[in-house]
Write a structure and sequence with these properties.
Order of helices and strands: EHHEEHHH
Number of strands: 3
Strand order of the largest sheet: 1-2-3
Shape: flat
Helix content: 55-70%
Strand content: 5-15%
Number of helices: 5
Distance between the termini: 67 Å
Length: about 140
């Protein structure tokens, strides 16, 4: 940069999109805005056509897409995403709690209480996922002729 001081901050965002596995060439035929350079660089690579809520269409390489998005088609999918996010937060909070000298003493007890609540919530989510999955499997077993 040309002498401009930039004060970057960290942001976390969430988007809900529609997507379908598709090559870049096919995605362009379906209306995705893809540059010719992107097409050339991704011949033969797997990826996804992405449709955003405003109708904008783009394409993403498979690895990039799967790092950023998780399937959220059903309530069970969404609970699995929530449990994965919660588990990651529990791990980070546990590490902070167990790292000597990282937290002031007046923060250790509240963090321990928070971890207790988070672990309880994780067990509830896991139980709901198991119940829903078992119910779906039982329903599928009944449908088999």
């Amino acid at each position: 940069m040309k002498g401009i001081e930039v004060d970057f901050k960290t942001y976390t965002g969430t988007k809900t999109i529609q997507a379908a596995p598709m090559s870049a060439v096919d995605a362009k035929e379906c209306g995705a805005r893809i540059t010719d350079e992107t097409l050339r660089e991704n011949i033969g690579h797997d990826g996804y056509l992405i449709v955003y809520p405003d109708g904008y269409r783009s394409w993403s390489p498979k690895e990039v897409f799967e790092e950023a998005y998780s399937l959220s088609e059903t309530h069970v999918d969404r609970m699995k995403i929530e449990l994965a996010d919660l588990t990651e937060r529990i791990c980070k909070a546990t590490k902070a709690f167990l790292t000597p000298g990282l937290l002031p003493d007046d923060q250790r007890v509240p963090l321990k209480e928070q971890l207790s609540a988070m672990n309880f919530y994780a067990r509830v989510l896991l139980g709901r996922i198991r119940t829903a999955t078992q119910r779906k499997e039982a329903d599928n077993d009944r449908r088999i002729p």
